[in-house]
Amino acid sequence: MNGAETLVHTLIANQLDVCFTNPGTSEMHFVAALDKIEGMRCVLGLHETVVTGAADGYYRMADRPAATLLHLGPGLANGLANLHNAKKARSGIVNIVGDHAISHLELDAPLTSDIHGVAAPMSDWVHTTASADAIAADGTQAVRRANARPGGIATLVLPANVAWSEVADAQNQINVHAMSHKPAPARMTEPQDWARIIEALRQEPQSTLILLGDRALREKCTTLAGKIAAATQCAVRAEFYTARMERGAGRVRVPRLPYAVDLGLAALAPFKRIILVGAKPPVAFFAYPGKPGRLTAPGCEFLTLSTPEDCPEQALSALCEALNAQRLAPANLVEQEEPVALSGPLTPEGIGKTLASTLPAHAIVVEEAMTTGRGFDALTAHAAPHDWLTSCGGSIGFALPAAVGAAMAAPERRVLALEGDGSGMYTLQSLWTMARENLNVTVVIFVNRAYSILRGELAAVGAGTPGKRATDMLSLDRPIIDWSDLAKGMGVSAVKVDNLESLALALSRSYNTAGPSLIEAIL
Predict the structure, then answer these.
(1) Domain count, the chain
(2) Are residues 161 and 207 in the same domain?
(3) What's the rounded Cα separation, in Å, for the pair 51 and 297?
(4) pLDDT band at 357 (very low <50, low <70, confident <90, very high)
(5) DSSP 3-state assignment of 330?
(6) Whole domain around residue 361: which residue ranges?
(7) What pLDDT digit, counting tens, does each position of 249-266 carry?
(8) 337-373 core/surface letters (b: 16 or more CB in 10 A; e: else)
């Protein structure tokens, strides 16, 4: 058994059985091993940032890592944007990056690069396997790092000569290391701010906010937070960017903080203290002249109930018990609203309400509609129960590949990808993978033929009124991009809509048809 085969067996033995791939010459022995060995599902992406974004979406829904297969330093570099998003979302991923044979590196061939230097900023662990006999231990360590709490990005560099070399006693090494591998449990410790948290919730709940992030936005945790709110009348909110938020009818409504600085400042102004549950102190996404970077009121006190390394359910459950809230009905439970047929032009409000009234139960929404979708949080709060995923790092080109990964992780559920036309052009190759794998993904592209969010940002930073050149740099109308034709060219059926009636009809048809489809919403 060679090194590549040993690595594949090791990954499978450690419950990693999906690999998103974009291989090159240095990875051919690994490709051959994937072909030869049963148990690994291999999914081809036509660009590396599709591959890494899909691995991010997969982890968020599966709660376990997938692998990526990337070609040398440049291939890894192509995938860094969505690895950035994955790191901010605390997703676990195992990157397998091929490299030249060790003896070839000294020749400085054209694709020779500093892979460690490329990987380090977006990885929690980077390692090069020095010999074939070390590959089982290194592969297991990569999976262990990816399975940490919170999840981590592990990048394992596989030199070509290690991949093709024979491994002595390979099966025994695989067995030893697989048996020693267990996913890291969540930490369970009493928070150092415990006494102050209890005091604040008992004595000044009206000026206290519980801010949820990370896994505290799963249904079990939001239910507990709702019980605490019922007992104390404190406020509960979520971070604006959420890796995975379980929301909708029958669940506790947890409004996300606003994106815009002024709205964020207004929302947080009443609170003298914020209890952090898997969340960070709120800050503005960018710096703006004359505006603060921190969104909280001056002197706001931060109290930590749990960090992303901790178990939020255990921490919230203990807090419920301390406040005698276990038997209370949660505050802010959402009731599903009756579907309402809307008519008229496509407006953000009308689109949000149409999405809410048509969304199937237990759908997965992957949202990157940065201009059109800014108000969707409130507009879809009463939809059927669903999961909501956003880009946590702000690097655009997230939604389409993440939808691929989410659909792979939960094939029985419908995935709805909400994407702007500017962002979508970064990773439109994802459509091809959706078609190839026949994934149940409904893609809605909001076509305003501009980087509209940047037009707003130009004004927000005080850069003045845009002239012809600035306007041209923020416009996508010369030539017009035809998303329906692009989708059909990649094997995905598509339809154009320009009013709410046709949008609702197209959504319903898509949800009731197996496989992927695209709706081009002309705004």
Answers:
(1) 3
(2) no
(3) 41
(4) very high
(5) coil
(6) 348-522
(7) 999 999 999 999 999 999
(8) eeeeebeeebebebbbbbbbbbbbeebbbbbbbbbbb
